[in-house]
């Protein structure tokens, strides 16, 4: 999820080895519509186009990617991995702190979250619509009024394999719900009337085209893998 005023930067388009950050999967990419599978902290994961990594390495690079793209959360399907993993961050919301947006985002971090197999439950049935929402996979589109539960508990496994539960409210609760949705193939626009998606038709078509370009670039990389192995 992106906070308002944080436009997403274009993702770099180079594959191979271990990336510093991952390229972002965009609206229109089928991986964003798949139901992700559960994972264990000991799994080996392979982000398409890159070398295999541990879950911890992937989570670290996801955090790096999220900061680079000025996001507040990032789910594994958004980097092409259909597994139930997301990262999120809570920033200091002190007015003064927020003024200098040129400052590295990391200097404003209150807490980082890495959650495996998260399950979100409502602690308050009342719906909240009071924040604007955006998504790193749908760059440039922000909407008010996405209904979210105001208070939630999230049960998850941490990187050490420990089961944990925490409670969150307001904006952080929204972030967790947005990221958990990604693991079920759901996007924030799905929660709004169809007319909203229709209103953004032109921008969404552009994003879908960018997604197609990315996927054909990736397919080309994969189809030429045997040539690189023989070098
Ligand atoms: Zn998102």
UniProtKB/TrEMBL annotation:
The keyword DNA-binding does not apply. Fe cation binds at residues 135, 178, 182. GO terms for molecular function: metal ion binding; peptide deformylase activity. The active site is at 179. SUPFAM superfamilies: Peptide deformylase. Its EC number is 3.5.1.88. It is an enzyme of class 3 (hydrolase). Binds 1 Fe(2+) ion. One of its GO terms (biological process) is translation. Keywords: Hydrolase, Iron, Metal-binding, Protein biosynthesis. It catalyses: N-terminal N-formyl-L-methionyl-[peptide] + H2O = N-terminal L-methionyl-[peptide] + formate. Its cofactor is Fe(2+). Belongs to the polypeptide deformylase family. Removes the formyl group from the N-terminal Met of newly synthesized proteins. Requires at least a dipeptide for an efficient rate of reaction. N-terminal L-methionine is a prerequisite for activity but the enzyme has broad specificity at other positions. HAMAP family: Pep_deformylase. This is Peptide deformylase.
């Amino acid at each position: 999820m992106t906070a308002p005023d944080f436009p997403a930067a274009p993702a770099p388009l180079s594959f191979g080895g271990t990336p510093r950050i991952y390229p972002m999967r965009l609206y229109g990419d089928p991986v964003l519509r798949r139901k992700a599978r559960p994972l264990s902290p000991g799994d080996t994961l392979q982000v398409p186009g890159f070398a295999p990594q541990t879950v911890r390495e992937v989570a670290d690079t996801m955090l790096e990617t999220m900061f680079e793209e000025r996001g507040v959360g990032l789910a594994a399907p958004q980097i092409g991995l259909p597994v139930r993993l997301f990262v999120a961050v809570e920033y200091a919301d002190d007015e003064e702190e927020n003024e200098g947006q040129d400052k590295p985002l990391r200097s404003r971090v209150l807490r980082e979250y890495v959650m495996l197999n998260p399950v979100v439950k409502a602690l308050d049935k009342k719906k909240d619509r009071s924040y604007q929402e955006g998504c790193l996979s749908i760059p440039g589109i922000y909407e008010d009024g996405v209904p979210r539960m105001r208070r939630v508990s999230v049960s998850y496994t941490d990187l050490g394999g420990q089961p944990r539960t925490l409670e969150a409210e307001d904006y952080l609760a929204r972030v967790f719900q947005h990221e958990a949705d990604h693991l079920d193939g759901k996007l924030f626009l799905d929660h709004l009337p169809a007319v909203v998606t229709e209103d953004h038709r032109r921008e969404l078509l552009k994003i879908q085209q960018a997604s197609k370009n990315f996927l054909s670039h990736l397919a080309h990389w994969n189809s030429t893998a045997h040539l690189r192995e023989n070098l």
